[in-house]
Amino acid sequence: MDNWRKSSYSGPGDGNECVEVAPTPARTAVRDSKAPARAVLTFPAPAFAAFVDALKARPRR
């Protein structure tokens, strides 16, 4: 996958909690941007979208 993008929630610059995602029509891949050569998690696109929607609906602390 070559369409990785850093989460806007990772913070400015390098951030301390960096996550990158690479969506495709069928699946979404997630990796740690500080260790991109390590394991990548993949999820069915609808499941990942539901996960993100649930996070957005939560009140911020």
From TrEMBL:
Recorded superkingdom: Bacteria
DUF397 domain span: 3-56
Region (Disordered) residue spans: 1-20
Biased composition (Polar residues): 1-10
Protein name: DUF397 domain-containing protein
Organism: Streptomyces anandii
